[in-house]
Amino acid sequence: MPDFDPPSRNRPRSEPKFTLAQADDIRVRLARNPLPKPVQANWDEAERVNGVYSSNAIEGSTLTLGETEAVLRGATVPGKELHEHFAAVNLNLAWTKMDDWAKGPIGERLLLDIHQILLARINDDQAGRYRTVRVRIVGSEHIAPNPASVPEKMETAFAAYSELRGRHPIEQAADLHADIVTVHPFSDGNGRSARLIQNIALIKAGFWPINIPVTERARYIEATYQSNAGNTVPYRDYIVEKVVTSGLDRLAMVD
User: Per the domain annotation, does 181 fall within a domain?
Assistant: First the structure.
């Protein structure tokens, strides 16, 4: 795992290349001139397959993008673990529910429902349940809190999410992800659950789901570690970048 500098909320920062104003502008332009329905459907399918592949690969899945697509079409890939097949199918199912979930409240019940789907047939005893054991985040100096405090901390995390506190909705979504991975409420599936609910929060705010490419795993993990330690700026900036670049790709299809 990459090293990172000690966090500081007051560290001077250069102006980011990608801004919240850019994201807002793209959102308005896409609302005025949306993708044609057939193009949108094709785009959504490609994004879903890429999102399933990348999110699982970040967590160690050995399925390639092509193998992931084959699994989602019902194939069994020789030489790959059964749990990798289930992980792909489960995350794909959860991904298809994001738009519907975004119409409802974003809270602990939603997070537990997401986790229930993600760990189905992989670890049914733990699926949809907060952890009852201590865990350590591999490669990080951050120590996840005592399991007895997880319910209270997750209640606090979602209460914080519901309060804008002067934040932009993209920052709000990024901070929710940061809070979830910092608490590490589950024995397994924390990253995938956090990334999915982050996407749901973005959709609810009128944006679009983003994909964290596995090729950017080191940068994503480093920014996440910074958030664990209290410095939310790098992760917020990273998510703004992903929202803007994804939005620009969408605009390129209609401009």
Answer: yes
